[in-house]
Amino acid sequence: MQSNVAIVYGEAWRVEGDEYFGIIPFKNGSKAVLSWKIEQKEGEEWYDFVERSMKDSLEAITGKDLEKKTSAVVRSKIYYHFKFAVE
User: Which end of the chain is more exposed for a tag (fewer CB within 10 A), N or C?
Assistant: First the structure.
């Protein structure tokens, strides 16, 4: 896929009605906050950065595994917010 849009920041939110919370409660009673920031490395070509930003964002989301660690009720309230940059 060829794109000129990079993901430079992301975070997970739990949304309930018109309120949102950065803390996600797990089934086991613990809690987590998920956010990440991706910066272009010195000398990195823009399209390489775009590709890495997508891979790193996917790894951040799947690595935390929020969907498996939360109850069905909480899982249905998780939304992801991304900040993008264009060359």
Answer: N
